[in-house]
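forwarding from the other thread:

> can someone predict this with ME8?

sure thing
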Amino acid sequence: MKSYYITTPIYYVNARPHLGHAYSTIVADTLKRFHRMLGEDARMQTGTDEHGDKIVKAADAAGQTPQEFVDGISSLFRNLWPQLNIENDGFIRTTDPEHKKAVQVLLQRLYDKGDIYYGEYGGHYCYGCERFYTEKELEDGLCPQHQTKPEYISEKNYFFKMSKYQEQLKQHILDNPDFIRPERYRNEVLAMLEGGVLEDLCISRPKSRLTWGIELPFDKDYVSYVWFDALANYITALDWPNNENDAAGKFQQYWPGEHLVAKDILKPHGIFWPTMLMAAGIPLYKHLNVHGYWLVKDTKMSKSLGNVVDPLKAAEHFGLDAFRYFLIREMNFGSDASYSAEAITTRVNADLANDLGNLFSRVLSMNAKYFGSKVPALGEPLEADDILCETTDNGAQNFVQLFGEMRFSQALEALWVPVRAMNKYVDEQAPWTLAKNGETERLGTVIRTLLENMYKVCYLLWPIMPNSSATMQAQLGRPQGELSEAALKDVINYRMHLRTGLEIASASNLFPRLEMPKEEEAPKPKKEKKAKEAPKQEAPAAPAEGAKPFIEFADFQKLDLRVGTILAAEQHPNADKLLRFDVDLGEEKPRQICSGIAAHFKPEDLVGAKVVVVANLPPRKLRGLESQGMILTAEFGDKLTLLTADAPSGSTIA
Ligand code: ME8
């Protein structure tokens, strides 16, 4: 039997789980279920990342020991997943003794091979990010993520020779175009690999500074860097290294697997982890699947901004399956998406209450009225019946293909083509008229055709809405049996699945309409608050007619203008006027910027251009994509040129 292994990030235990964590974990669960539906031996893995400075600080703040603290929060994650109907097969904690031993084996293997060396390092250390920053990467001397002043630390540490594997990794990505997907993230990683020699990775922290970590097996004065420890979970959870060469063990059975992460942790997964695997002589993962952020009012939902949504409360409020459906349908995998009570209400009412729920409810109650809830026989089909069946067959096939390509939103869209076609078919065939005219055989054929097509759709919805799918299948008199490749092929390829004469449900009310919420009061992001508190200054009158008013020098100084290199450019997927760019501003990750200049430039002509960017505008969503800055242009009549500067990425303009 083919096997399939899907992992989520292991989450930090410095705060409670939120919707972002729930999204990744629900996607992993739907993928596992989808692959079970394909008849594969599918396994899903999640867990918690419990070492490092961040955790020690959070434990201190809570007045607990690190161990007490991590035990408490880790169990919040562990207990949440079943409540969201997530069936993870494993839950790993990086404080598990087996994991610690395995990480030590990995460290020792790299050390013995000569891929770990001892050296001196000085840098600006941000405790929030748990990493060193170079001078260039800081913004006004502050950490770009946390806006706090990092501490300058110079110390001796151990380094992993990441640069040694740079070329090999680049070649692997070039040879395997979907190794990192969607493509924009592959391009980001390639840009990092092509942008100069990789810095070797500092993989230790001296115990004088931090003891909450896994001790290096070759130096008792140091603990492992949290990322080195965390990434290894993907194989230690399969009992590596104990079963490395055991064909019957979990490692051989499931590795290499599939990883699922958001774009925030692209670099550790796209660069650190594959080079670590290369050094250890372990095959690389199959794919790194990268999704975007859930935004609340155009700002990333994150614990540090205090604008998080509690997934359990949302699931309780909207209904668990409706909530799962919304998350999978609403986010275009790879891009950002917006979460709000309005968005979920609109989506659930349209797709579930109106389209799917209404279809089940009206067809089952007509069947009850006209046939005493017994499945009617199929008579001679007419062209309209064949067209409907073809539409459903195509929708089912497209769904399976798109879902397998991680295009979840499009997959569900494809499945809703038959759902809508069925509602239209009811309206056009007007069973009530057939009943009135006594055309019982034709009436039976219409109802039976509908019931059969409804069965196909609800069977396929199981990975996303397991409970509702099972209920709908049972309502049609065919409770879900064993999942297998043959069963799925049968559902997709055959048109008759129900039993004539069998008594089935007489009503269905799975997805009640939701009340549109009153003006939603989401907590305001802290950043926004800060900006509002800044005192307003009246500017003097305009210098000349038609020109803008004078501004204070202090206002000008607030602008963070920087040189950025365009690494990638493409048409915005949802707007003709916009282009989407990845721009290197000398930061850890390139920024995504959307700009309304599509009418003036071809995206491919702009790659490599060094442009001027306003870097401190708050991120804003433009037609579904977050734009993290603005590219400056000069306008004359209807001509537009880009403002460019011949200086390295990240250079400040003053
Ligand atoms: O980074 N939208 O843990 P973490 C979508 N321990 N997904 C989101 C999200 C959002 N707004 N916010 C968080 C770590 N996530 C490390 C990982 S793995 C070896 C170590 C999800 O608790 C998303 O999956 O900060 C993201 O990658 C992850 O939570 C980060 O979780």
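The chain is about 40% helix and 20% strand. thats all i got for now
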